[in-house]
Amino acid sequence: QVQLVESGGGLVQAGGSLRLSCQVSGRTFSTFVIGWFRQAPGKEREFVASSSWSGGSTSYTTSVKGRFTISTDNAKNTVYLQMNSLKPEDTAVYYCAGAYSGGYDYWGQGTQVTVSS
C-alpha cells in the first residue's frame, strides 16, 4: 500500500521556477521507482521524469532536460521536481506515480501548474 500526495503547483510567469513535492506514505522497497507525469487539457498524459527511490538513476523526457530536476529525500519520504525556466507549454496537471515493477500502480491526485507568457 502506497499513497502519494503532490503539492507545490501554482501560477508562474514564463522563465520562472517551481518545485513540486510528492509525499509518499506506505512501504517502499529498494526497487521502488517514482515518476512525474503531466496532462494538459485535451492531451494524453505524458511522462516527464523518473527516479529510483535511492536517486541513483534518473530519466527525463527530452523537452525538460536541462530545465527540470527530479530528486528524492528518503528520510522525508518525499520526491521533488524542481522546474526551472518554465515555458507556457509546461502548463498541465502534474502527477507523481510509483511503481515496483512494470507499470505505475500508484498515483497522486495531481497538482496544477500554470505558466503564463
Descriptive labels:
117 residues, mainly beta, seven-stranded mixed sheet, four-stranded antiparallel sheet, 11 strands, 55% strand, globular
SS field, number of helical segments: 0
Low-confidence stretches: none
- Count the E strands: 11
Helix vs. strand class: mainly beta
Approximate strand percentage? over 45%
Q: Overall 3D geometry? A: globular
Largest sheet: 7 strands, mixed
| Proportion of residues in helical segments | under 10%
Element pattern in H and E? EEEEEEEEEEE
Mean pLDDT: 94
Distance between the termini: 40 Å
Based on CA atoms alone, the radius of gyration comes out at 13 Å
Explain what the structure shows.
By secondary structure, the chain is mostly beta strands. The chain is 0% helix and 55% strand. The chain contains no helices and 11 strands. It has strands at 2-7, 10-13, 18-26, 33-39, 46-52, 58-60, 68-73, 78-83, 92-99, 106-107, 111-116. The strands form 2 sheets. Strands 2, 4, 5, 6, 9, 10 and 11 form a 7-stranded mixed beta sheet that branches. It has a 4-stranded antiparallel beta sheet with strand order 1-3-8-7, with no helix packed on it. The model has no long low-confidence stretch (mean pLDDT 94).
